[in-house]
Task: structure prediction
Amino acid sequence: MNAARPELELVDVSKVFQSRQVATRALDAISVSVRPQEFISIIGRSGCGKTTLLRILAGLIKPTSGAVRAEGRSLWNGEARDQETIGKLGIVFQDANLFLWYTVAANVALPLRLRGVDRKTCDSRVSELCELVGLKGFEKSYPGELSGGMRQRASIARSLSYRPGILLMDEPFGALDALTRDRMNLELQSIAAATRATVVLVTHSITEAVFLSDRVILLSPRPGRIRSITDVPFARPRQVDLQTRPEFQDIVRTLRHQLDEGPHEQG
Amino acid sequence: MNRDRLMRLLPWISTPLLLIAIVVVWDLYVRYSGISEYVVPAPRDAWISLLALLQEPATWTVHIWTTLLETLVGFAIAVVTGIAVGAVLGRVYWLESMLRPIIVALQVVPKVALIPIFIILFGFGVTAKIVTAAILAFFPIMLNVMLGVRSVSAGHREVMRSLGAGRWQTFRHLDFPSTLPYVFAGMEVGIVFALIGAIVGEYLGANEGLGNLVVVSLNALDAPRLFAVIILLAALGSVLYFGVTGLKRLMIPWHESVQQNQSG
Result:
């Protein structure tokens, strides 16, 4: 019974942004079930509402209608966020958003300290995480001294610190160069495997989405609707040269066509 | 010796050289321009005056002490009130827009023009100077804190929100450390303003303090002593300023204004 329960679930979610004159329907009737330990990517053009969707999943904004559930529990109790359920989510933002006044170690430990975890446990968890994300030896550095890729590693380590079952990532590698990005993709795959986390990744890159995901959700814009859900059947762990295989490229091509269909074809 | 090391040593080499150059030019000017020694004394005379001044116990126990006390107490008041008012005005937008015309008006008024009023109100003692120092230092600190409170990054706020941080936790881990560089930026200006406030206050009416010593030397037409007191004031100002920047280095070693000077 438990195994069949979706880890993360959106049921008929819509979001309308109301400004003084106009109401913009950003998302319309989105329903998604994410299985435990599944890796899902959300792609779509700029302005299709994918970041809004992730922020709804993260409990940062409340949907206008519909339900959001993590591990079977709603993120919202009426108008209030259910902090315990939201505490099962780890969020990696587009910008690393590290606190410049804390060292890498203190940044990674911040969520634990907010939860009142004692210093000794924090320290051992920090060194474990820095090992995992490849930041060993940089624990005492300040974020200002790190490269963009390393900052994003630290940000991932921070979001993993309290062992969330679900990792939500909003274009985490968008600002990185192509080579660093490939490396980070490989590492994200192994991090997801090692932590057995369920991952939802928002990205601009079709290749990245197909390479990492079990399923790719394509959103069409205005209003944001699910255009297609594509299964990506390749075995794990996946190597970079998978990207040159024809089967891989077929999936990428199909998705690119769907993406190109444009906003003139509403929905 | 590599470039970075040289860059770091540069001020330690250039500053003494520049000072020597200034003294040499000063000396040559006095020697060959024929200017009266009552107007510009020779560097040697100013130096002798300075040594004599430093040997008078009253210089330390009365004058330096008084000026230092006025400056530091005024500055401390400005720091406390500046941070408090700046933080409130930075957060409470309606209050800030309500008070903005008054704040601007108060800023625009040359505040040293108010010193006679303070002297009427508080007399010739240290109180009038403390008030002047505090008011002069208050504005840069308050304005910087207000800016700092408003400059907390939205992304950082979102991180704290997603981690379910409470109000106090958010203040302690985010608002406070994020605003500190602005506090120090205000304090660096504020400490200099506080000293100016104390000195000008002493010019206008005091029996003690380095500002009073300036006026007394002027009235006695003792140019070497006048220059000696001014040198002493410059030294005092430098000590106070470097005290604040030293505190900044200690408190926010992560900030770029500190790191730039340390890199290499």
